[in-house]
Design goal:
- By secondary structure, the protein is α/β, with parallel strands linked by helices.
- It is built from ten helices and 13 strands.
- It has two domains: about 210 residues, P-loop containing nucleotide triphosphate hydrolases (Rossmann fold), CATH 3.40.50.300; about 60 residues, 2-Layer Sandwich (Alpha-Beta Plaits).
- Strands 5-6-7-3-8-9 form a six-stranded mixed beta sheet, sandwiched between helices. A four-stranded antiparallel beta sheet has the order 11-12-10-13, with helices on one face. The chain has a three-stranded antiparallel beta sheet with strand order 2-1-4.
- The longest helix has 16 residues.
- The chain binds adenosine-5'-triphosphate.
- Adenosine-5'-triphosphate binds next to strand 2 and helix 1.
- Keywords: ATP-binding, Nucleotide-binding, Transport.
- This is ABC transporter ATP-binding protein.
- One of its GO terms (molecular function) is ATP binding.
Length: about 300
């Protein structure tokens, strides 16, 4: 199966380096999420990958071949970059059929992908009457048309309803499990956490992180424990004696850094301090991502 290879890619717009010496590889068999704050350079990278923009230097290829060099590219690479790519006057079915014909894809695939994308009922409707969510589904149907080994989807959940978001997540996982190469950009961290195995994070045109999801969360967050007690000041003082800091919250709870719940429970028991709640707050991808990119938003 094909890998995506971005190598030393730079793309400038005038004096702005939208992408700045970016290097990463997306191998088959896993879902790779492509993240970064607004203006990070994700769309620019994907447009260069799709051959819609020329790199200033470096390359973005599929096993070393540029998109434009691929014969019948829709059979190799499925891309969703712009939900408005289909002409509004076209009917959904005809739009996909034209794409299929130009890439020698069997016409029966049109009906299959329309059904897969949940828009079979709208097949004969003109695209301009589609909602944003339906246009996204049509774009995803188009990406799947050639049964490609590589899928590149830019913000596929834009405009989708909750069922649509679950559908995308399941679809991405299935495509990766089939051994395909899946790269998906997103702003919605919670959804990325459930769908992706691996993260590539960029900001200000540069690579910030390229690592497995669990390592990313571990490296960029720390666990805390939330405690509720009827004797907050005593608990705080006893924790301070054990060199732990308890920070009071707005709701009467305390947050403790750097200790396990069992340690805090044992300490409270030794001093006869009643505990009403003791909860370990796990690191979330969202926390990790915000921490990593806090200083990196381009204005
Ligand atoms: N054609 C262009 N001409 C000038 N500047 C551009 C052009 N395209 C993109 N940029 C700039 O390049 C930077 C990267 O933009 P890009 O759209 O790639 O970011 P992004 O990570 O996809 O952001 P978002 O998450 O907001 O979609 C931004 O500062 C943007 O304003």
């Amino acid at each position: 199966m094909t890998s995506i290879e971005v190598r030393d890619l730079t793309k400038t717009h005038g004096t702005l380096r939208a992408v700045d010496r970016l290097t990463f590889r997306v191998p088959p068999g896993r879902v790779t999420a492509f993240l970064g704050p607004n203006g990070a350079g994700k769309s620019t990278t994907l447009r260069v990958l799709a051959g819609l923009q020329r790199p200033t230097s470096g390359s973005a290829t599929f096993d070393g071949r540029a998109y434009r060099e691929l014969p019948r590219p829709l059979r190799r690479v499925g891309m969703l970059l712009d939900p408005d790519a289909a002409h509004g006057a076209r009917r959904a079915h005809d739009h996909l059929l034209a794409m299929a014909r130009s890439n020698r894809i069997p016409a029966r695939r049109v009906g299959e992908v329309l059904a897969d994308a949940g828009i079979a009922d709208a097949a004969r409707k003109r695209v301009r009457t589609f909602s944003l969510g339906m246009r996204q589904r049509l774009g995803i149907a188009a990406a799947l048309l050639g049964d490609p080994g590589v899928l590149v989807l830019d913000e596929p959940t834009n405009g989708l309803d909750p069922q649509g978001i679950i559908w995308i997540r399941t679809l991405l996982r299935r495509l990766a499990a089939q051994g395909r190469t899946v790269l998906v950009s997103s702003h919605l961290m919670a959804e990325v956490a459930l769908a992706a195995d691996h993260l590539v994070v960029m900001a200000r045109g540069r690579l910030l992180a390229d690592l497995p999801m669990d390592a990313f969360v571990r490296e960029n967050t720390h666990r805390t424990v939330r405690v509720r007690t009827t004797e907050g000041t005593r608990l705080r003082d006893e924790l301070a004696r054990a060199e732990l800091t308890a920070v009071p919250g707005d709701d009467g709870s305390w947050t403790v850094d750097g200790a396990a719940p069992a340690d805090i429970g044992a300490l409270a028991a030794r001093h006869g301090i009643p505990i009403l709640e003791l909860t370990e707050e796990g690191p979330s991808l969202e926390d990790a991502y915000l921490r990593l990119t806090r200083e990196e938003t381009r204005t």
